[in-house]
Amino acid sequence: MDKLTLLKEKYNEKLKKANEAEEYFNSHSVEECMKYLKLFNLRTKEVSMTALEIENFTGRKMTTYEIINGFKL
Predict the structure, then answer these.
(1) % of the chain exceeding 90 in pLDDT
(2) Minimal CA–CA distance to 58: which of 19, 1, 2?
(3) Is 1's pLDDT higher than 90?
(4) What distance in Å separates the CA atoms of residue 50 and residue 58, rounded to the nearest whole number?
(5) What HEC string does the chain produce?
(6) Angle at the Cα of 38 from the Cα atoms of 20 and 6, rounded to 5 degrees
(7) Considering the chain, what percentage of its residues have pLDDT values greater than 70?
(8) What mean pLDDT value characterizes the chain?
(9) Per-residue pLDDT tens for 13-47?
(10) Which of 11, 14, 26, 64 has a CB 3.0–4.6 Å from the CB of 46, allowing a cystine?
(11) In whole angstroms, what is the distance from residue 66 CA to residue 48 CA?
C-alpha cells in the first residue's frame, strides 16, 4: 500500500473519531462535556495534523468535500 493511501486511511479514522466526539458533545450536558474537553480538542487536532500531512504530501489543498467527508478508498 502506498503512503498516500495510508494517509487517507489515517485521515478517515481520525475524522470518524472526531465526528463521534462531536456527536457526544451535541447530546450531553455542558458538565459532562467539560470532562472530555481535552480529548475532544485532541481529536480535532489529530484531524487537522493529518490533513496537513496529506496536503504536504500531495502538494495541494484538500477539497471541502474531503475535509468534511474523508476519502473514498
Answers:
(1) 99
(2) 2
(3) no
(4) 12
(5) CCHHHHHHHHHHHHHHHHHHHHHHHHHCCHHHHHHCHHHHHHHHHHHHHHHHHHHHHHCCCCCHHHHHHCCCC
(6) 55
(7) 100
(8) 96
(9) 999 999 999 999 999 999 999 999 999 999 999 99
(10) 14
(11) 12
Grid cell locating 57? 504530501
Residue type at 67 in one-letter notation: I
Residue 53, C-alpha cell as written in the block = 500531512
CB atoms within 10 A of CB 20: 11
CA-closest candidate to residue 7, choices 59, 52, 64? 52
Give residue 1's identity as a one-letter amino acid code: M
Residue with cell string 475524522: 15
Please tell me the distance from the alpha carbon of residue 34 to that of residue 19, in angstroms, as a whole number.
17
Q: How many residues does the chain have?
A: 73
Distance between start and end Cα atoms, the chain:
12
